[in-house]
Amino acid sequence: MSAKAGTAVGWMRKIVKALDIRNQIRKKIVFTCLMILIPSLAIPAISFYITTTNTMEEMMTQNMSDLTESVSQNIESYVDDVEKLTNAPYYSMEMQQTLLSLKYKVGLQRTEAEAKLFNTIDVLLGLRRDIIGLYIFDDTNNRYYKTSLGDVTPFYSFVDQPWFAKIKALGGERLMITTRKADHFVSPDPKYVFSIGRSIISKETNEAIGLILVDMDLQVIRDRLTGLKKKRNTEFYIVDMDGQLVYSYDESSLGEPFGRPELMLKDGENEGTRVMNIDGDRHLVTFSYSQRVGWKYITVTDLEPLLQPNESAIMNNIVISTVVLLILLGVVSLFVSSSMTNPIKKLQKTMLQMGEERFYQVQGIETRDEIGSLVRSYNEMIGRINGLVNTVYKAGIKEKEAQLNALQAQINPHFLYNTLNSIGCMAEVREVPEISVVCKAVSDVFRYSIQSGSNLVTLREELDIVVQYMTIQSFRYDNRIEAIINRDESLLGVKVMKLSLQPIVENAVYHGLEPSRGKGIVIINMELDNDSLLLSVFDNGVGMSEDKLQSLRHSFVHGRPTDPRTKAGGIGLLNVHERIRLYYGERCGVAIDSQEGTGTSVQLRLPYLTDDKDTKEAGL
Predict the structure, then answer these.
(1) What sign does the CA torsion over 339, 344, 348, 350 have?
(2) Which CATH class is domain 87-222?
(3) CA–CA separation, 354 and 388 (whole Å)
(4) Taking a C-beta distance cutoff of 8 angstroms, is the pair 198, 175 a contact?
(5) Domain limits of the chain?
(6) pLDDT of 132 strictly over 60
(7) How many alpha carbons lie under 13 Å from residue 293 in its C-beta half-sphere?
(8) What b/e readout covers 439-462, taking b as 16+ CB neighbours within 10 angstroms?
(9) What proportion of the chain, given as a percentage, has pLDDT over 90?
(10) CATH topology of domain 457-617
(11) Residues 152/145, Cβ–Cβ less than 8 Å
(12) For FRET with 165, which of 37, 191, 504, 508 sits at 20 to 30 Å CA-CA?
């Protein structure tokens, strides 16, 4: 046997072994799922293709019919409005009398009568700004008009136009005049217009005493086709009863006979939908007819670009469904096999951890088989071991607590407070007042920070402790640092959180003034803002960079420093900010602004609490 033949036989054996489902439950499950999967995919795929195609055609038909009907109604509404305007001369007695008397008037009287006509035309044009021109003819065909496109050419004869005679023949009924180029204007680039005209009938004699004509810009129709123009692969036509093209996207043939007779319905048919084969492609043709206007609306939509993507979509759905089902198949097979092996692996892993002085129970195994019984017995044993360990561990903790209490008793805060007072008295006796002042300030600060009772103090008390603190710092920095407190006596009784202002001043000294070489000033202001107390602390120290400022503001929002290297000053401000928000709610807290080399301003917003009643109502 050659080497190639041996390799082929080896590959065949591997394939047969891989497909052998006799010895592995996982392979049996996969094979069964495939036998169910293939027909389950084929039948829905074919049904989906047929249903989707039919549904798409129905939706497209309904959509195009609705759009075409909407266009028809919009145009009808507009024509109705203009038609009412053409009826105005019939209801105006002054205009009728003017038209009747024109033939008898000359000179100044005729000029005045014509002025009345022009004034009436101005009024009518003011009612519709989208009208290009309005013309009134008397019974001798003299014309009076106003237009928005300039003057009418002097050689243009309205009387000789075919529609002029048709209007007179209709005896007062309106006539829709199809689209045409407005070549009667003095313009190098005439627009397309369509018109409405009717005879002006006398109420007294019931005879024609003149004629009114209104020219409308074709833009009126364009504006009403916005929905249709957004549809790709769509053509739209408007054809009048004489077969003349009123409108199409290609405006080169407007006013001429409609050049696509294959799109016209048979006589007697005006509305409906058809699927036609045009140039080898399927097209949906929608027909609509406006009886009031006398126009036919034809919409032609190429179905191929719309239906062809569905085939790709169906194929993609089949592929995706197959992949999803194969994934589900793998998950099911893995779940079945894992349900038998995972409990044993978990138990083994947990038992191995006992060598690291950790005693964990096995979690997540609730089966009722032999493996579940084994796990429950193991967990009971671990529970007893953990109980013994906890007993010994708690005994050790109690011993450590006793040792810690003994150490703390040696540095009793009251002992330190009394000691500082003793040092202060000795300094006074030996006439060293500076030491006495500083010791008193330190003891006052210390006593203020350790005293028990309410967490709320008056603003006066908080400011007093700030004064004592600044006394210490002034002595420490050889009077280089000074505090200016702008007190408002009306606000000193307001209740504030203890140690809310002093940490801000401390932060200003250590991080703003200490690095600075010049005279350091801390300015404290207070003011009332509606129902809030605003306390501001400004220092003329070194300030901070924009990056550091933004990082600090970010920590206020997220409750933790964004940079693990943040110094204690930032943490101190964050501590005060979080304490205030915990006490008073989200509307209160700390705001900071700083400029490098200029200084830093910190503002505290606190609620305006003046007595115990306010604090109770605030829930404090």
Answers:
(1) positive
(2) alpha beta
(3) 15
(4) yes
(5) 87-222, 359-409, 457-617
(6) yes
(7) 26
(8) bbbbbbbbbbeeeeeeebbbbeeb
(9) 15
(10) Heat Shock Protein 90 (3.30.565)
(11) yes
(12) 191
